[in-house]
Specification:
This protein is an alpha/beta fold. It has 29 helices and 18 strands. The strands form 3 sheets. The chain has a 7-stranded parallel sheet, sandwiched between helices. Strands 14-15-13-16-17-12-18 form a 7-stranded parallel sheet, sandwiched between helices. A 4-stranded antiparallel sheet has the order 6-9-8-7, with helices on both faces. Helix 10 runs parallel beside helix 12. The two termini are about 50 Å apart.
């Protein structure tokens, strides 16, 4: 059967003497990469959905980018994180467009909180609330940078911590954005980014932006998506979790504190003396704090995934009149006090409604807060679950148990009309390859979902079922790495069981011995923040002042800073399209981490040779969302453990294990410090999810494996 025009172009690009091989010195053809690229090309030709699991080292970025760019279609690419989004836009896309000689326009589009808001910067400058010197210095830096930036993307500002208190002062949210009524609307960075996206051939977004738009239809995607025929979700394994987050309802005391701050700021600036703004703001903050005080935080062990690796918090089930642990009468009284405070805010805003557009938006935010309170006062819908996330602030969450019904209509949306994009993007230059293909007749939209980890069965049901993609074409491309030769798996038989209180301390001592023998080069992945802190503190104490070993702990720096320090490299040294080149060696470093470091932590080369996972990563028992999903499965006659908990653990274990071997020359040992992996019947299913590494059975054999790594590193180094 002859190849389609697009398939022929793709075949030529990936050929041994093709464009990629000629232009990229480290590129060499990989059968799996070419197979995936051809599957993407076929999906673009015919429309429909492709779910492609591409093992580490396949080169999935090129496998979807090459056919997408050569197709002549307008392309939307969604990534899991803003950092990956930046890398794709700033490095991978320009490089590949140069290689393929395609003069396509590209655009980067993020959520509004990623961009500098000029109006709020002016307010912060005039505001006496930002009294801390460190905060004032950062605001001054932002102001200087604002004079030179074109995009307004805060990721461009060096040294700005993503958790900086300055960010909410100089960015807008859906709640506080003034829209067309803003005095700086013409210069708005968010609107400029959206205009550029509407005029681009390739637009790079992130999953959060995609789902935020599905929830509220306000981010510009409602205009963008109908004109796009090819949509690619990279790191698609995060889609369900992101969708659950955005397609539910969230309301918290942090939002109320933000409302109080903005109320005081706008009131003093535009209507000083008209209303007792300090009194209203203080009453609202006190009512929010009173609600928070009714809910205990507890002392339970915090799951790392639930907390996101950040500050301690705990999810409290909420099935009755109040969250678990809260006195119903005190909870009801606190809600009434909060409603009263919000009503008084409305009265004050009504008195000055015409004096500035800020007041109209504040009025809308206050009404929305009251509507959310009223909704949460009613019984939880049967297809959702609720909980209270008690941390520094109290967050009330209502999440859907199943987002597939919301997504299925999207994946099967009607065909787009030919030329639908012509008015939005009048530029006709799209390269000779694109011109040769032409736009043709109307065809269904092509959806491509890809990640290194999408499930453990042939149907990839862990991913496809909750995302409503059971009818999608499935492709599984194995990693080209020789895991049996490059890596080994060890389950220490003598450590206490994970349920034993001595487990974490014993593991910390054991890891310390291994680190000393190997000379660092170790990543410890924990399943809880409690274990993270305990193991991190023990290792830092043991190696304090050690001349050759440094211990890094998550939370003591940003993820990017920790990664660069671990690699012993300067910022920007490594990129995805250079994955075959390896990375700079990071001699003598140990990183103890959880949550987000189970994925997206890429350290090729000898800088990382030992990965230790403290426990099997089962979903945390007692988590309200986990329990609700389990109950739902049991009601359907299925097993909560077999059909939910076990697949979740298998996928997470696979992701954590994937940190070890990142290139064809890497070597190392994976340690899973949980004897259930080898001692329980379900362990066989978890073992099948791991790459086919050789097995180490004894401590002596493990020590010998570390010695061999030391010898190899000293020889090659």
């Amino acid at each position: 059967m002859p190849l389609s025009p697009l398939a022929a172009l793709v075949d030529a690009a990936f050929a041994p003497e093709g464009m990629l091989a000629r232009a990229l010195p480290h590129f060499h053809p990989r059968a799996g990469q070419t197979d995936m690229a051809q599957a993407v090309a076929q999906t673009i030709d015919t429309g429909g959905a492709l779910v492609a699991e591409a093992g580490t080292g396949v080169g999935k970025t090129f496998a979807y980018l090459v056919p997408a760019l050569l197709s002549g279609e307008r392309v939307l690419i969604s990534t899991a994180t803003k950092s990956l989004q930046d890398q794709l836009f700033a490095r991978d896309l320009p490089r590949l467009l140069e290689v393929l000689a395609l003069p396509l326009k590209t655009a980067l589009l993020k959520g509004r909180s990623s961009y500098l808001c000029l109006h709020r910067l002016e307010q912060a400058r005039q505001d006496g609330l930002a009294g801390e010197r460190a905060l004032q210095r950062m605001l001054a830096r932002v102001e200087v940078w604002s004079q030179a930036t074109r995009s307004g993307d805060l990721a461009e500002l060096p040294g700005l911590d993503e958790k900086s208190a300055a960010i909410p002062l100089v960015t807008s949210t859906r709640d506080n954005c003034l829209g067309s009524a803003c005095p700086r609307f013409r210069d708005c960075h968010v609107n400029r980014a959206r205009r550029e996206a509407l005029a681009a051939d390739v637009v790079v977004i992130n999953h959060h932006l995609f789902f935020a738009d599905l929830a509220v239809r306000e981010s510009g995607m409602a205009e963008l998506l109908p004109s796009v025929r090819v949509v690619v979700f990279d790191e698609a394994h995060q889609l369900n979790a992101t969708g659950v987050q955005f397609l539910g309802l969230q309301f918290g005391t942090g939002q109320l504190h933000d409302l109080a701050r903005d109320l005081l700021q706008a009131g003093l600036q535009h209507a000083r003396g008209w209303v007792d703004w300090p009194g209203l703001a203080q009453a609202l903050r006190q009512a929010a704090d009173q609600l928070r005080a009714t809910v205990r935080s507890g002392s339970a062990e915090v799951p790392a995934a639930a907390a996101g690796g950040g500050a301690s918090s705990i999810r409290l089930p909420w099935s009755g009149a109040a969250p678990e642990g809260a006195d119903p009468r005190a909870w009801s009284a606190a809600l009434q006090a909060l409603e009263w405070a919000l009503r008084k805010v409305l009265e004050g805003l009504d008195a000055v409604a015409e004096r500035a557009p800020d007041f109209a938006r504040l009025h809308e935010r206050t009404v929305q807060a009251m509507e959310r309170l009223a909704h949460l006062a009613q019984a939880c819908p049967p297809d959702a679950t609720r909980w209270a996330d008690a941390g520094l602030h109290l967050r009330l969450v209502e999440s859907p148990l199943d987002i597939a019904p919301r997504l299925r209509p999207l994946w099967s949306a009607p065909e787009i009309e030919p030329g639908a994009w012509d008015d939005a993007a009048p530029d006709e230059s799209s390269g000779e390859a694109a011109a040769a293909l032409g736009s043709g007749a109307a065809r269904g939209r092509a959806w491509v979902f890809t990640s290194a980890t999408l499930g453990t069965d042939d149907a990839l049901s862990w991913f496809t079922e909750p995302c409503g993609l059971q009818g999608a074409r499935i492709l599984r491309v194995e990693s080209p790495f020789d895991y049996a030769a490059q890596a080994a798996l060890f389950v220490p038989p003598h450590l206490p069981a994970p349920s034993d209180p001595r487990h974490t301390a014993s593991l910390a001592r054991w890891v310390g011995d291994a680190v000393e023998r190997l000379g660092g080069r170790t990543l410890v992945l924990t399943t809880t923040l409690k274990a993270l802190r305990s193991i991190g503190a023990a290792l830092q104490q043991r190696f304090a002042g050690h001349p050759a070993i440094e211990v890094l702990v998550q939370g003591q720096g940003t993820k990017r800073e920790l990664m660069e320090r671990f690699r012993n490299e300067s910022p920007g040294q490594h990129s995805a399209w250079e994955e075959e080149e390896g990375g700079a060696p990071g001699q003598g470093r140990v990183l103890v981490a959880s949550a987000s470091f189970w994925e997206g932590f890429d350290v090729p080369g000898d800088a990382l040779q030992l990965v230790v996972i403290d426990k099997l990563p089962f979903p945390p028992p007692g988590d309200p969302l986990v329990e609700a999903r389990g109950r739902q499965l049991e009601q359907e006659g299925r097993s909560a453990f077999r059909d939910f908990a076990l697949p979740e653990a298998a996928v997470a274990l696979k992701q954590g294990a994937g940190r070890l071997i990142r290139s064809e020359t890497d070597t190392g040992v994976l340690v899973v410090a949980d004897t259930r992996l080898t001692g329980m019947g379900y362990g066989k299913r978890l073992l099948r999810a791991l790459p086919p590494m050789r097995r180490i059975e004894t401590q002596d054999a493990f020590d010998q494996a570390l010695d061999a790594l030391v010898t190899r590193t000293s020889t090659t180094g």
